[in-house]
Amino acid sequence: EVYFKNLSKQKQKEVMEKNGNNHKLRVCVATCNRADYSKLAPIMFGIKAEPQFFELDVVVLGSHLIDDYGNTYRMIEQDDFDIHTRLHTIVRGEDEAAMVESVGLALVKLPDVLNRLKPDIMIVHGDRFDALALATSAALMNIRILHIEGGEVSGTIDDSIRHAITKLAHYHVCCTRSAEQHLIAMCEDHDRILLAGCPSYDKLLSAKNKDYMSIIRMWLGEDVKTRDYIVALQHPVTTDIKHSIKMFELTLDALISFNKRTLVLFPNVDAGSKEMVRVMRKKGIEHHPNFRAVKHVPFDQFIQLVAHAGCMIGNSSCGVREVGAFGTPVINLGTRQTGRETGENVLHVRDADTQDKILHALQLQFGKQYPCSKIYGDGNAVPRILKFLKSIDLKEPLQKKFCFPPVKDNISQDIDHILETQSALAVDLGGTNLRVAIVSMKGEIVKKYTQLNPKTYEDRLELILKMCVEAASEAVNVNCRILGVGVSTGGRVNPREGIVLHSTKLIQEWSSVDLRTPISDALHLPVWVDNDGNCAALAERKFGHGKGIENFVTLITGTGIGGGIIHQHELIHGSSFCAAELGHIIVSLDGPECLCGSQGCIEAYASGIALQREAKKLHDEDLLLVEGMSMKKEEVVSAAHLIQAAKLGNTKADSILRTAGTALGLGVVNILHTMNPSLVILSGVLASHYVNAVKDVINRQALSSVKTVDVVVSNLADPALLGAASLVLDYTTRRIY
Membrane-spanning regions, if any (predicted)? Predict the structure, then answer.
């Protein structure tokens, strides 16, 4: 521990030397309202506590300086921060035009302030329109921006503003793993993203043991008990003001009917807030004996109020974020927080036509106590942020770079106006056939080409290129715009490099093969390559039973046994690209030998090759054919003959199939106990013969908690080609890498 502390100090010293000897980082923190100050204050205290590294300038603007919203700049002064500049930037009116005018006014006033301060970096929080003005000004004046809470998802115009600030910001501090992934998906530089947690949690997680009864009595009255009052905080939804006002009216009606002491905070300064205040006054909330209506509560006291409330109701981000730290029940109303990660303490009421739905939610939630949630932080955000600030090298180029996914430089884009349909070229390398198809965005196979798969590497690659070139030319004639090429092949594949590492024995001379480069060079298109089992899972995710399912597993039952795993909507490849080799799950220590060299694999029991082997044994012993069956002398015995014999009453054939189904079922049980998916999809020619056997084994062998899993047969006619197309269509439309 001492070693790593010294190493960290040495690195900070080196950065300071790079930035100029004894140069302190001049940090400007701009705060616009009571909500963002609760997140910025812990960082400001941290910066102030290390004067040897930082100089702090505080700029206050927005609703902080408006009397109707509590003149909340005073709490900044009470925290003993020197306010360098106060900017009156809010144009009153509380409508859409006033918001635009407020942004314009801030843009007019900020340049003079920033010219005087000349900060090295500006810290901007969140997704408010004031913050957009701050980020725009700083970016245009070549000032580095650190954005707090980027990458999150919510409803209303805030979502667009947050992502716009992300694109302007040079550095990012996010609160959750999902937010970090969203930033990466938005092409932000991973090295400039810090997963720190929410700064307010540093205070939240140490706040609950303080004296709280005096605070509760001060705001709600002497006769109020803990867990016997409600905190209500609801803001207008700027993209649907009329509906949000109606929802607020229904909320107040429900709270009046519920008849519990309630602390109601006035809404923020967004368009529609004036109408919401009128609704409060129309219903007499400010004079109602059960209600206390206030413009502002200091954050330290607000923490205590929500921590010991019976319930919080409204649409504030505080309800879905901070309140989870205390396990207080929350009712989240409307669409303002749609997409936010929430703990189990949050009950969503997306829409309500009458007060009854909200009243029912109050009856369900009030007085409950949920486990504390740490989705948004662990209480150590500020030390991480300060360390991140110290690591910033001011000599690095100011111009930010975006990490776009890799594509060929010479992709032609000049015929977009001619082509209307986005499509993919899909290549399926099977043990017998080589197929290429044009697949549309909807999963329609527009054109398909099939040839026998050559036995040698050179012939195979030559044929792939020839078929792809032919298909790409034909795409123009059928009005398809080809976005890229997806290749599905057997064996272990490195999808990052587009290389087949090791092949199955069904495809000869197919190891350490770079498929991406020759195809991309020939077609001038981006190329994706993956294992056929993974492709089948991707096909189900985009076009089949897996559409919209967060966690599921696909099992291919064909010549071999393969599969793919989708976890949290994403495909799992594993550390060495060997995940989902489901056919090689061992279900018996002394079972038949598998092609992989092991014994007792699922594939050794349930694959087409395994069934063919058993069929040959029966045939050699004259035990295969029964009445109603016939075979030509030169006809090769196959798994189909075994299945036909079982259907016609051959007990030995039936026993072999039941054993194969049991082996597959045991493998599925192991998967259920390991991955706990909500859906298992059986794909391939043998799927329909195994589905009932698999369900029976699950009912007999699986833990009760996973027995409810759905097991279905794939309805996709060509999962290999559709999966190869999904590699292209998902990537090019989602921009996730």
Answer: none
